[in-house]
Amino acid sequence: MKSRVTKAVIPAAGLGTRFLPATKALPKEMLPVVDKPAIQYVVEEAVNAGLIDILMITGRNKNALENHFDRNFELEARLEEKGDDSRLDKVTHSTDLADIHYVRQGDPLGLGHAVSKAAMHVGQEPFALLLGDDIIDEEFDLLVQMIAEHSERNATIVALMEVPDELVSSYGIASIEATEKEGVVRITGLVEKPELGQQPSNYAVIGRYILQPEVFAVLAETKPGRGGEIQLTDALAVLAKDTNLAGGVYGIVFSGRRYDTGDRLSYLQAVVQIAAHRKDLGVAFSAWLVDYAASLPAQEK
């Protein structure tokens, strides 16, 4: 029986150690990308796809996340007194985005464990999973496409990107076969962070999923895998192998702009690329960037 996707889950419990000392007191999800925290881009993507019931899986020292999406009466009153309607709108925008709930992961036992914490909130419904480290450029409607594909197939849908050889060991990598639809593949197997040369393809699972509720039962039986953590990839591999369990697993191959804010270099690239495509900043920033790039000395590799 088909169910409509109405809820989104966003895991945000990671420690952000790659960004220390900036993340000593500030959650990595709150690092600014131009003038918004990274997590707001992800929430806005879910809302733009029609998902306004959102559960965040958090951990210790993540209070700033809740505060950001809550009211700030003193700041709002000060801006209103000053007649600064533009900034007031920006402050209240994050508050009014969605109905956001929070649950703590507790033990940091991996992405699969974090997802399992959503079982009570999600119930027996399919749901969207959006990783807080991944920002998909708002110009692309990837999540909308994935929801539509789920409605058609009643199966788990993941987003895939083709990555170069040197990055395969950083992702879950899929074995794929073609379907009747261009850009949509059936996933026959998944391997978490394979060694170079052992990967079944170069198609990596990126941080967008439409998951069937059966994933919770599979996760409950999933043993710790790579890194001693409960890997979502291992649970998806079970669903991909047993197509009778929940309709199998399919992938939408994405070739648009995606930013990984969990890596320092990728984070800096995200700030630059998003700023360059902003209507209010793009022209002036791009002009400065071209001049600055031209002034840089050649760097030896």
TrEMBL record:
Matching Pfam families: NTP_transferase
Keywords, in A-Z order: Nucleotidyltransferase, Transferase
Annotated protein name in UniProt: UTP--glucose-1-phosphate uridylyltransferase
Example GO molecular function: UTP:glucose-1-phosphate uridylyltransferase activity
SUPFAM superfamilies: Nucleotide-diphospho-sugar transferases (SSF53448)
Family: Belongs to the UDPGP type 2 family.
UniProt record, GO biological process: UDP-alpha-D-glucose metabolic process
EC class name: transferase
EC number: 2.7.7.9
Domain Nucleotidyl transferase: 7-275
Reaction equation(s) it catalyzes: alpha-D-glucose 1-phosphate + UTP + H(+) = UDP-alpha-D-glucose + diphosphate
Listed InterPro entries: GalU_uridylyltTrfase_bac/arc (IPR005771), NTP_transferase_dom (IPR005835), Nucleotide-diphossugar_trans (IPR029044)
